[in-house]
């Protein structure tokens, strides 16, 4: 298990192109992974949101899972 701490890209709403690994997201907000988005400038928001994080995985790797406790 590895903690993915640090800042993640965050954007409210939904857009199919955002799932593209090459999508340019540098204009998105940066939120801390260890705190809920409602305490980081998005209090009262209640819709769809996207999180993005780039990482390099060692090859080969086993099954992967992601747990986000504050989302």
Describe this protein with a few key phrases.
about 0% helix; globular; mainly beta; about 70 residues; about 20% strand
Structure in words:
The chain is mainly β. It contains no helices and 3 strands. A 3-stranded antiparallel sheet has the order 2-1-3, with no helix packed on it. The protein is globular and about 40 Å long. The model has no long low-confidence stretch (mean pLDDT 88).
Quick synopsis:
This protein has 71 residues and is mostly beta strands.
Element layout with pairings:
Blueprint: E1 7-12, E2 29-32, E3 49-52
Antiparallel strand pairs: 1-2, 1-3
Number of E-state strands: 3
Strand content: 15-25%
Spans of at least 5 consecutive residues whose pLDDT stays below 50 are none
Major beta sheet, specifics? 3 strands, antiparallel
Bin the helical content.
Answer: under 10%
């Amino acid at each position: 298990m590895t903690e993915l701490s640090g800042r993640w890209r965050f954007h409210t709403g939904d857009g199919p192109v955002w799932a593209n690994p090459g999508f340019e997201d540098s204009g998105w907000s940066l939120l801390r992974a260890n705190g809920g988005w409602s305490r980081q400038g998005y209090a009262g928001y209640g819709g769809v949101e996207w999180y993005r994080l780039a990482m390099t995985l060692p090859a080969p790797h086993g099954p992967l899972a992601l747990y986000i406790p504050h989302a």
